[in-house]
Specification:
The chain is an alpha/beta fold and 282 residues long. The protein is 48% helix and 13% strand. It contains eleven helices and eight strands. Strands 3-2-1-4-5-6-7-8 form an eight-stranded mixed beta sheet, with helices on both faces. A hairpin with an 8-residue loop joins strand 6 and strand 7. Helix 1 packs across helix 2. The protein is globular. The relative contact order is 0.10.
Length: 282
C-alpha cells in the first residue's frame, strides 16, 4: 500500500495525515469545507514546525512531508488510493453515507478502514460491498506521539486485509495490537471506567481533583492523572464513550458519572474550552 487517503480533518485525522506524510506516504486528505481543510493542513504545518524548532527533524524533512499531502473537498479524489481511512465523528449516522459512497469510488483491491473507538467494525463493514476488505484501526491522540494502534477485525475481515494493515501500521512507525471487535476494544474498555471512577471519587468528596491525579501518578506511576487526561481527551468524548459502553454492556460501572455529565451540559469540555475538571483560563 503506497497511497493513503484520509477522510476527516479533526484532531485524530490531522495527526494521521501528519504521521503518514512523515513516514513517506503520499496522502490525500478529504475535508467537508475549505475552512476545515485549511485547519488540517495548517495543523500539520504547525506540528512539523515545532519538530523543526526542537531539532527533531530538519526543515527539508518537514517540507518534504508537507509536499506529500494533497487536500481535497471531493471524495472522488480518493480514487487510486490503496488504503482509505475514515476518521470522522463517532456517530453511525455520519459515518454511514461516507462509507457507502467511498465504497463506490475506490478500486476493488483497496482497503477501507475506520478509525473508531467504540462502534462495531462488523456493523460498519456491512455498509460496504466488500466487507472482507474492511477493518478497524484505532489510533490514539496525539497520533504522532502515541505508538499503539488497535487493529480490529470485523467478522468478515479477511486474513489478507489484516496482514496488509498490520504491515501498514508498522510502516507508519506504530505498534499494532490485535483486538476482537468488542465495544471499547481494550484500551477504552479499561481506561474510561477508571476515569469514571475518578470522577465518582471527586463527586463523593474523597479527594480534590488535584489530589486524585497526584495519587494515581505517584501510586500507579501514570504520567498523567485520570481527570487531567479526561480534560485532554475532551469530556464530551469521555461522556459519549462511557454512554456507548453502558448501552452496549448494560453494566453500571460504565454509566457516566454526574460530575462528567453536568460539565458537558455546562460546556466545560476540558482543555478545548479552557475549563473541565481544571480551569485552563489562567
Amino acid at each position: 500500500m503506497d497511497r493513503i487517503g484520509v477522510i476527516g480533518t479533526g484532531t485524530m485525522a490531522t495527526g494521521i495525515v501528519q504521521q503518514a506524510a512523515q513516514s513517506g506516504f503520499p496522502v490525500v486528505v478529504r475535508a467537508r469545507s475549505q475552512e476545515s481543510l485549511d485547519g488540517c493542513l495548517g495543523g500539520v504545518k504547525k506540528a512539523l514546525g515545532r519538530l523543526v524548532s526542537k531539532e527533531k527533524i530538519t526543515q527539508a524533512s518537514a517540507d518534504e512531508a508537507l509536499g506529500r499531502i494533497q487536500g481535497t473537498l471531493a471524495l472522488e479524489d480518493l480514487k487510486g488510493c490503496d488504503f482509505v481511512l475514515e476518521s470522522v465523528a463517532e456517530e453511525l449516522e455520519i459515518k454511514q453515507p461516507i462509507l457507502e459512497k467511498i465504497d463506490q469510488i475506490v478500486d476493488d483491491a483497496s482497503i477501507i478502514a475506520t478509525n473508531t473507538s467504540s462502534l462495531s467494525v462488523t456493523k460498519l463493514a456491512s455498509l460496504v460491498s466488500r466487507p472482507a476488505h474492511f477493518i478497524g484501526m484505532h489510533f490514539f491522540n496525539p497520533v504522532p506521539m502515541m505508538a499503539l494502534v488497535e487493529v480490529v477485525r470485523g467478522m468478515r475481515t479477511s486474513d489478507a486485509t489484516h496482514s496488509r494493515v498490520v504491515d501498514l501500521a508498522e510502516r507508519l512507525g506504530k505498534t499494532p495490537v490485535d483486538v476482537k471487535d468488542s465495544p471499547g476494544f481494550v484500551v477504552n474498555r479499561v481506561l474510561f471506567p477508571m476515569i469514571n471512577e475518578a470522577a465518582f471519587v471527586l463527586q463523593q468528596g474523597v479527594a480534590s481533583a488535584e489530589d486524585i491525579d497526584a495519587a494515581m501518578k505517584g501510586g500507579c506511576n501514570h504520567p498523567m492523572g485520570p481527570l487531567a487526561l479526561a480534560d485532554l481527551v475532551g469530556l464530551d468524548v469521555v461522556y459519549a464513550i462511557l454512554d456507548s459502553l453502558y448501552r452496549e454492556y448494560g453494566e453500571p460501572r460504565y454509566a457516566p458519572c454526574l460530575e462528567i455529565k453536568k460539565r458537558v451540559e455546562a460546556g466545560f469540555l476540558g482543555r478545548k474550552t479552557k475549563r473541565g475538571f481544571y480551569n485552563y483560563e489562567k
